[in-house]
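Quick log. Single chain, no ligands specified.
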Amino acid sequence: MLLTTLENHFLSRERPERAIEIFRHAVSTSRPDTLPRFFLGKLFYRLEMVDEALAEFSALRDRASYTPTLSYYLARILERRGRHAEANSHYRRIIREGQLLSTQYRCLSCDSRYDIWVDRCTSCGQWNTVHVDIREDVSLEDLGISSAPVYSAEGG
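-> predicted structure:
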């Protein structure tokens, strides 16, 4: 939250160079530097300094466990650079690891859910009431993407 507040503070005062300076200092003095480096990359992306953003996010790619937000930013940048195959790889990773393409089924009578289609609901016993559960209005949160990621301080 602090890094987002700092970023917004300096951008609202039209001082992006000061925000960059503070984030670069945080990257150079923090161990691990994952969080400040991510926010520096996000700041560069927001300022449309795409090459700099790509460099920061690429430095995190092999060090961070799966993070949909990082994959999303990498995909957007690579897409803008015309590197569509690489961008698609990141988009596929978001879809695959977010299980966005898994089909679920739901009984229209009792709302029981199934991973595979069944002709008779095992909960209520009704025939032909199990149909594909179509989720509409999937939020960015459901996709695992947020404009301001939340990090925890696990492990000390």
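The beta strands are 105-107, 113-114, 130-132.
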